[in-house]
């Protein structure tokens, strides 16, 4: 689901200024998988990420906005979403993220994926589209191609929707996040990241 202009403009503007300003040292190469099986795999993805901790007002404002979405969706759709985790992502020119799922069926507590885009004036020539795949006639095909335009919010089911970020030709900023259900045992929530 692509929602152009869904992000409050003033919030999107502050997030963009922040991410543009961040030092290289505040990012790390994105790995695949969770802490246990963490491996850096530059063949699969070459973006750099910075996890939100809620340590400052801007991160809290974004998390608060997502919290209001979480409550609205739980109220109307009875999804039982428990919490939300997210990170800034920076794709340098040439960076990509090959086709993947954000969750493997039954194996993680990520239910809904969100991506907020922070790139004013992005055009097709800049590449970096988010491709959405679906099974059509028994074959997985691209069914949507989304430009990472400032203010656009994309939401999809984490374990159902294969997606891919094609090579970006200019610096591309986004915030990827996941609403999770609580599948904890012994009151211990699955570790994030
Ligand atoms: O930035 C995007 O368009 C999507 C990123 C993504 O798929 C992810 O971080 O899992
Ligand atoms: Fe993803």
Structure annotation, total helices: 2
The biggest sheet amounts to: 7 strands, antiparallel
How many strands in all? 11
| CATH C-level name | Mainly Beta
The coarse silhouette is globular
The percent range for strand residues is 25-35%
Order of helices and strands: EHEEHEEEEEEEE
Radius of gyration: 16 Å
- Judging by the overall fold, what is the CATH architecture? Sandwich
Annotated CATH homologous superfamily: q2cbj1_9rhob like domain
Give the proportion of residues in helices: 10-25%
Q: Determine the structural class based on helices, strands and strand pairing.
A: alpha+beta
State the strand order across the main sheet. Answer: 1-9-6-11-4-3-2
Please name the defining characteristics of this protein:
binds 2-oxoglutaric acid, 2 helices, alpha+beta, single chain, 7-stranded antiparallel beta sheet, binds fe (ii) ion
Give a short synopsis of this structure.
Its cofactor is L-ascorbate. By secondary structure, the protein is of the alpha+beta class.
What does this structure look like?
There is one protein chain. The protein is an alpha+beta fold. The protein has one domain: q2cbj1_9rhob like domain (Jelly Rolls, Sandwich). The protein contains two helices and eleven strands. A hairpin with a 2-residue loop joins strand 7 (130-136) and strand 8. The chain is globular and about 40 Å long. Mean pLDDT is 89; it is low at 33-39. The structure holds 2-oxoglutaric acid (AKG) and fe (ii) ion. 2-oxoglutaric acid (AKG) binds at residues 89, 97, 102, 115, 130, 148, 163, 165, 174, 176.
